[in-house]
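Researcher: Next entry in the queue.
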Amino acid sequence: MFPKGIIYERGKSPKRGEFNLHPALAQKITYIAFRGLGAGLIGAMVIGFIFTYGPIFKEEIGYLIFGPKKEVAGSLSKLLSAGTQKKVQEEARSYGVGAYFSVVIPKIGAKSDVIANVDTANPQEYLAALEEGVAHARGTYFPGQKETIFLFAHSTDSPINIARYNAVFYLLRKLEPGDTIIVFFADKKYLYEVTEKIVASVSDTSWLATAGEERLILQTCDPPGTTFRRLLVIAKPAK
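Model: Structure for this entry, 239 residues:
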C-alpha cells in the first residue's frame, strides 16, 4: 500500500540499502479516512440514482421489452358487459384501484385513484394530492356529465421528484389515437378513446374550459421531470 525506496550514495556508501518509507500514523489515518469517504460518496450516488430513476427505467424498459399491454382487447368485452355496481367494483379492484374515482390506461399499465376537485392554482394543494394519486381539476366536470373532465399528474423541475410525482403518467406520450382509457366513477365505468395528443405551453389554460361535449383530458409535464411544456392527451367517449 505504501511505497518503497532504494538509497545509495556513490563514493560514500559501499553497499546499497533498501528501506521502507512508512508515513506517520496520522498520515495513514487521514489516507484511509479519505479513501473510505470517497468510496462512500460513490456508493451513495449510485444508490440515490437507482432510487431516483429506478421507477422510470422500469417503465421505459418494460414498455420497450414487452410493448403495449395485451389485456386491452380481451378486457373490453368484459368491461362493456359489467353493468351492475358489484361487477364494476370487482372490475376496478382487479386493476388495483377503487370504483369511486380512478383512471386505468391498459396500454401503458397506468392506474391510479383520482383525487377530486383539486385547485390547479394552489401548488401546496395539488402537490399533496399527487402524492396520493392523479388529480382532478376543480371546476371541470365528472364522467357522464357531457363536459370536460381534466385529470393531471404533474412532474417537477427537480429530478429527485420525477419518480414521486410523474410515474403514473410517465408513459402517457406512448398513447395514440384509438387507444382506450377507462375511468371508474361513482361505481360506474366509462370508456374513452384517444383522439389526439397536444403539446401546449405552461400558460395555456384554455383546456380547462367547457367544450359543449364530453371529453377526457389527461395532462402531464413535457419533457418528464421539467416544467417547460404540458403534454395533453384528449379522449372522447368510446362508441
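Model: Confidence is low (pLDDT under 50) at residues 71-82.
Researcher: Noted, moving on.
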